[in-house]
Amino acid sequence: MLTNEKGVLPGSDLYLITPSDNAKEMLFYLTSCGHYYTNSDYLIRRDYYHSSLIIYLCEGQMSAMTGGKKEIIKPGEVCILDCLGSHEYRCMGHAEFIWAHLGGSNFPTFHKRLIQTYGSFVFPVAHPEETRRQLEQFTYSHRNNQTVSEWKTSEQIYHLLISLLDQNTSAETGETGNTRLSESTRDAMEFIRTHYAEQISLEDIAQAVSLSQYHFSRVFKRDCGYSPHEFLMITRMDRAMYLLKTTDQPIKVISRLVGYQNETTFTNAFTGRIGLSPSKFRKFPI
Predict the structure, then answer these.
(1) Across the strands, what pairs with 97?
(2) Domains in the chain and their CATH numbers?
(3) Which of 118, 156, 163 is nearest to 136 (CA)?
(4) Tell me: the pLDDT tens digits for 143-154?
């Protein structure tokens, strides 16, 4: 589909997609996508739009603004905008970019994590050609009248989002393969697994891997997607569940064995995390 939007040049593509109720409830989905060639007349300014936007800039330069913050987009960079609030994006001269409006019940979580990971809603990617290819597949299928199920589209969007997060980890750690944990994170995990029954703090863990608390927390969360404290809690809960199911030890004893000096504190933490109290979990069939 060709578009006649102001500032959009011949050769550009625009495709509009109506998601099913099933897609809105369960899947990631597209509401529109395109491959644009534009000049400086291209400007979009809105107070609201019903889905988020992802842009990959191929050539030229663009600017984007949201939440009162303005960023410049350069070739090989991605812009991801939450369009539910006031936003603007425009071309600074001639530009080529691929874009898609996306939605899904879990999309805001990915959106938030991407911005936390990169520190901005505009960011470079480690493998720009791969990102471009992933976005191009949306316009390609519509341009060629290919029938793609909403399930497949959801899978493609999911892989795009995971790839954007994974590229950042890969670029910063310099590692390849499916497991890209830095040495400090691996050492911290081992320290926690060894000392979870003790009263250890973030400072203790950071010292064990010879990093400052701030830098350690940042590296650990970048690698794992959650904080060192979260990993400590998970480790304690895993062990507590094992002991509840495989021993007859009193809950008071188990609470101490997994790092809690107070049974009430342990019971509250366990119930909040697992959804059942320790006594009910012990009786509950697995």
Answers:
(1) 36, 57
(2) 13-173 (2.60.120.280), 183-283 (1.10.10.60)
(3) 156
(4) 777 777 899 999
